[in-house]
Amino acid sequence: MPDLGLGPGRILHHKDDARANKKCVLKTIFAQISVQMTDNDFVPVPYTHQAMAGKIGWEAPSNIALVKYWGKKANQIPANPSISFTLSASTTTTLVTYRKLEQFGEEFDFDFLFEGTAKEEFKPKIKTFFSRIERFLPFLKQYHFTIESSNSFPHSSGIASSASSMAALALCLVALEKRLNPAMSPEFLTKKASFLARLGSGSACRSVQGDLVQWGAHTGTVGSSDLYGIKYPYAVHPIFGNYQDTILLVDRGPKQVSSTLGHDLMHGHPFSQQRFDQAQQNLTKLRPVFEEGDLDAFVEIVESEALTLHAMMMTSLPYFVLIKPNTLEIINKIWAFRQKSKTHLCFTLDAGANVHLLYPEGEKGEVLQFIKNELVAYCENGQYICDKIGYGPKKM
Ligand code: DP6
Hints:
The protein is α+β, with helices and mostly antiparallel strands. It is about 35% helix and about 20% strand. Helix 3 packs across helix 4 (about 185-200).
């Protein structure tokens, strides 16, 4: 049910009240329908300005999903809604230098440098991204671009950089479009950056703003869309305000199975429909949890989501396992520590062996001590990253 703004248990006494209320409900429904955007809303109107040459830079954060996106339909439409904390320290910085071509052809014309070195092997991914978004940014073939990118987190740390890198690139391209059409509103720019980032990598659409972002149509969330992420629109208890995420680097090697392949294996998966329904339900359950700051319920939903994600991998055909023995050792240690310490430390996983430890700021001292004493031993070269909830990308 969409949220119609009717309080629970509200009693109507008069016919007039009932009529007025019905009118109000209808108005709300129509307002909600009219704000549902489609692909066509992102095709630009003719540009009013020129941009011959210049530079644009953005730093975009990574994010960590609480309810996981796993499974998608054509055109990067998610099979279920997801929600994530935007991070703060794990970021990608991208600088785009553009020059308008005197003659432009059929190909995209760009160079790509990662951490100062030309990387030919990354170009096909960007080319695919450009061809997916050309309809929405029709100027792409009219420019030569030099794209320079770098990450704040260590190289090959096993942390997926696709969310932060696609978000940073999308933000740069939308900023260029803003120079061609200065009338674009800041709200629309954010929406379009998310829409485009999604076409690069699904989870990237949750990285163009902070701090709690939902992506995917969910019946209980006004304004939610399969096309872009939205800032979570309901009340969030201050306990989540400075939530910590310490990322334990368990395995820094490349993943054996890409997320894209993993998503694909949800087609014809024996448990896919139950899983997609469960994600919807978990989002519904999270609403009072966020509002009331119910950390016990939060821990249960978040850990269940992480384990379900990996259960989906283990029950695909072909099946695969991304967690490592040390991932399990860490999970068992967390459960024992939580029981003993009465803290609210919990874990989540993305599509790999690394473990994200989530906890409120007030428990930081105790948890960091526990990490140093008991968990560092399970990290590759003893490495971990201290991150926390973040408030969105930064223009450079
Ligand atoms: C497990 O966004 O990397 O991290 O859309 O194919 O690029 P593509 O997939 P991607 O998948 C992320 C999956 C996840 C869960 C999540 O972030 O919600």
